[in-house]
TrEMBL record:
<feature type="domain" description="Arginyl tRNA synthetase N-terminal">
    <location>
        <begin position="6"/>
        <end position="85"/>
    </location>
</feature>
<protein>
    <recommendedName>
        <fullName>Arginine--tRNA ligase</fullName>
        <ecNumber>6.1.1.19</ecNumber>
    </recommendedName>
</protein>
<dbReference type="InterPro" id="IPR014729">
    <property type="entry name" value="Rossmann-like_a/b/a_fold"/>
</dbReference>
<dbReference type="GO" id="GO:0005737">
    <property type="term" value="C:cytoplasm"/>
</dbReference>
<keyword id="KW-0436">Ligase</keyword>
<dbReference type="GO" id="GO:0006420">
    <property type="term" value="P:arginyl-tRNA aminoacylation"/>
</dbReference>
<keyword id="KW-0030">Aminoacyl-tRNA synthetase</keyword>
<dbReference type="InterPro" id="IPR005148">
    <property type="entry name" value="Arg-tRNA-synth_N"/>
</dbReference>
<dbReference type="Pfam" id="PF05746">
    <property type="entry name" value="DALR_1"/>
</dbReference>
<feature type="short sequence motif" description="'HIGH' region">
    <location>
        <begin position="123"/>
        <end position="133"/>
    </location>
</feature>
<feature type="domain" description="DALR anticodon binding">
    <location>
        <begin position="451"/>
        <end position="566"/>
    </location>
</feature>
<keyword id="KW-0067">ATP-binding</keyword>
<dbReference type="Pfam" id="PF03485">
    <property type="entry name" value="Arg_tRNA_synt_N"/>
</dbReference>
<keyword id="KW-0648">Protein biosynthesis</keyword>
<dbReference type="InterPro" id="IPR009080">
    <property type="entry name" value="tRNAsynth_Ia_anticodon-bd"/>
</dbReference>
<dbReference type="InterPro" id="IPR008909">
    <property type="entry name" value="DALR_anticod-bd"/>
</dbReference>
<dbReference type="InterPro" id="IPR001278">
    <property type="entry name" value="Arg-tRNA-ligase"/>
</dbReference>
Amino acid sequence: MQDFKVAVATCLKEHIEELTLEEITALIEVPPNKEMGDFAFPCFKLAKVFRKAPNMIAAELSEKIEPKGVISNVTPLGGYINFFVNKSQLAETVIKDVLTKKEKYGHSDLGKDKTIVIDFSSPNIAKPFHIGHIRTTVIGNALYKIYDSQGYNTVRINHLGDYGTQFGKLIVAFKLWGNKEAVEANPIPELLKLYIQFHDEAEKHPEMEDEARAWFTKLENGDKEAKELWQWFRDESLKEFARVYDLLDIEFDSYNGESFYSDKMDRVIDIIKDKGLLKESQGTNIVDLDEYNMPPALITKNDGSTLYMTRDLAAALYRKENYDFEKCIYVVGSQQSLHFQQLFKVLELVGFEWAKDMIHVPFGMVALEEGTMSTRKGRVVFLEDVLKQAIEKTKETMLAKNPNALNVDEIAKQVGVGAVVFQELSNSRIKDYTFSWSRTLSFEGETGPYVQYTHARCCAVLRKAEEEVTTDINYELLNDVDSAEVLKVIASFNKTILNAMRKNEPHIITRFVLDLAQAFNKFYHDNSILVEDTELRKARLALVAVTRQALENGLKLLGMQAPERM
Ligand code: ARG
């Protein structure tokens, strides 16, 4: 795809030796109003270099630059040089490109032969899969789609929380009060109940904690009964998680969770020891990080048992050896920022040069309107309930609009789930936010359903036209401002994906589909498409077709569906 910004930068470069092409490209802006031009170059930075006033530089450079190719006009305005893009050339380039590449439009093979590991979702077994997990799940999945679209071999890992002393507690509780049938009928709520009951009872009978520890040690030593119970808790939990992943249409390449590393920790502890980094402190083993203004990383506890950190150290090493990643990304809430800083620091101190390739992608917390979420107090919103309610509500809205709507269940699922996904992604990652049913399910404003609806609208026009879309059209007919706005957004798709990828920010893609939907709806509002004039109709249909394709590709990157009817 000919990138228009690059074309502008190339023109400028011929006359500016003092800046590199990249520096020039980075300076190019989009003017506040279209009458000024499609792109603008501010000359303020050059003032020092050229020892001249910015408006003088703008005037002189504009004189020198010959409009050619996609650039149709160059004019100075104050300290800026404004560039106008040749709109029919823009139309031709974009339409031909989109209609040949289709669902691959925007994609590239930049990441060929390189591997990216993404650790996301990673819930804890026997605990609710609640609304707090939605962000890691959908952000991780969108990042997977984004890297995958640029040709990276992308590995999705669900680092399940399936190990640790809490399983000793659960075994004790189950043996005391558990009921197999009840757990099988309703696994996570039942297991959670047992866990809560354990904590209540253990307050009165602290010796239960010792018993729990003893059971966890048995589990670690491969005791048959302990292992069978644990395996069963894990299987039942995974069945519940699978229902949510199904609704979201998310898959993983590996479910190697914390337990997978139970036999891989000794090695990493030895490596740390050999480097002289392991320190004893009150019976525990730590890596001192005082020098880096961090609390020590705890490697083993008093009783010799390992921790979350130990398993993450083993996991990092395993991933490097097994996948030879270029980057290993952890999509985990910002409450764990310190944990990841410590983890990466320990890897660096051990001397793994690839420690620099580990990236924590944090995000803000989800709060409930009625106060903070608390698993122990049972104040949680189950993710499955949120998705199901979203689907139900969408179905009601659809049937209210059209009682004879076709395929309602399937479409309500695509739109309802899409609404939740889009709302999670369109919030800037790092901000905390309060979960609200009404906001999530509102179909007005900058929402997923709005974008999907625009896509369905394009499909409806194309269906109604009943004629083939071709690239053999008169591109001069698309040089109006409304069409050019749509085409300019589409033209920026690949750059936008790369930007989202470099920043690990899927919300940049939500902005892209919203901008495209808005530009298209303006065009649609102001222009008839299925006009008598054959040439004009053909040209406008091509515009509709490429908009539809770009919206579909954008939605897919977000992990959403693009229904043809709504
Ligand atoms: N299970 C953890 C939690 O729910 C998240 C795990 C994230 N991944 C990791 N490698 N530490 O908080």
